[in-house]
Amino acid sequence: MALVGKKAPLFKTGAVINGEEIVEDFSLEQYIGKKNVLFFFYPKDFTFVCPTEIHAFQEKLAEFEKRDTVVVGCSTDTEETHLAWLTTAKDNGGIEGVTYALVADVAKTVAMNYGVLGGEYSFDAVTRTWSFSGAPIAYRGTFLIDKEGIVRHESINDFPLGRNIDEALRIIDAQLHVEKFGEVCPANWEEGDKAMTATQEGVADYFSKN
């Protein structure tokens, strides 16, 4: 079920912050009322597409910060595995130099609550046992959470499909424009483009100039 327009599921779990420190009680709640959050899931540490995305977010971190937005990553790996990967050199497949928080969703409850877990649990009433079908890791989910804790955008990619970091920035720009001006953003809108009012007159005016 889509989370857009709803309160983002909160959690408290382990994470690595600043690329070097393990904390046991990390929560997105600390940002409510203060920052927007770009919260993204990736499948697994020490893999292939994942480090390209994680480094790409880091390279654009200043752009997110200019938009009053913090970046937080999450996978179902442990804090210790996150830390090991964070201290492995980039040219050796690591993500050394990444400074934003990486959440450890070992119980898989965060991924389940956000609807990005690559499989599901089922209970056999006869044998009274639980089983899991699918992949027990997260799809490439991306969620924009505003300062009030409301999800304003979500997208989910399959495991092989890396996401576009510039598109994440474009979505944030659009949301900030809506908040500031009360206008809506048409297809392919980018910062600096003309937006429009959510009226028939606004639509007519937009198309008359495009």
UniProtKB/TrEMBL annotation:
GO terms for cellular component: cytosol. GO terms for molecular function: thioredoxin peroxidase activity. Keywords: Cytoplasm, Disulfide bond, Oxidoreductase, Peroxidase, Redox-active center. It comes from the Bacteria. Residues 2-177 form the Thioredoxin domain. InterPro entries: AhpC/TSA (IPR000866), Peroxiredoxin (IPR050217), Peroxiredoxin_AhpC-typ (IPR024706), Peroxiredoxin_C (IPR019479), Thioredoxin-like_sf (IPR036249), Thioredoxin_domain (IPR013766). The active site is at residue 50. Coiled coil: none annotated. GO terms for biological process: cell redox homeostasis; cellular response to stress; hydrogen peroxide catabolic process; response to oxidative stress. It is found in: Cytoplasm. Its main location: cytoplasm. Thiol-specific peroxidase that catalyzes the reduction of hydrogen peroxide and organic hydroperoxides to water and alcohols, respectively. Plays a role in cell protection against oxidative stress by detoxifying peroxides. Belongs to the peroxiredoxin family. AhpC/Prx1 subfamily. This is Thioredoxin peroxidase. It comes from Lacibacter luteus.
